[in-house]
Design goal:
Blueprint: H1 3-16, E1 27-29, E2 40-48, E3 57-61, H2 74-84
Length: about 100
């Protein structure tokens, strides 16, 4: 997605919805599941990149988000469990779940 495409979606939303933009929270779905609404991580900020990232517009989550690998074999499962443990994400500032 380009910044122009993102702006186009935001502009369309603003034009076709009665909600006040100040009341709409910007979030990133985190696919952690749970009951109710989509589990999300809040966005802390967004800025244009600089130096090597000058061609990017970056959205920064409130907490770090890491892509978890697909578990395919018992060895990979053990390596995943050793690395990630049984950590509880509920106290990390993420919503939902």
């Amino acid at each position: 997605m380009t910044l122009a495409e993102l702006k186009e979606r935001i502009d369309w939303f603003a034009l076709h919805n009665s909600a006040r933009l100040e009341d709409i929270e910007v979030c990133i779905p985190n696919h952690k599941g749970g009951m109710g609404g989509t589990s999300v991580t809040r966005v802390k900020s967004a800025n244009k990149g600089s130096d090597w990232d000058s061609g990017k517009f970056m959205i920064f989550p409130e907490v770090d988000m890491v892509e978890k690998p697909q578990i395919q074999t018992p060895t990979q499962h053990k390596r995943f469990k050793d690395e990630w443990g049984n950590s509880d994400w509920r106290d990390t500032g993420e919503m939902g779940g």
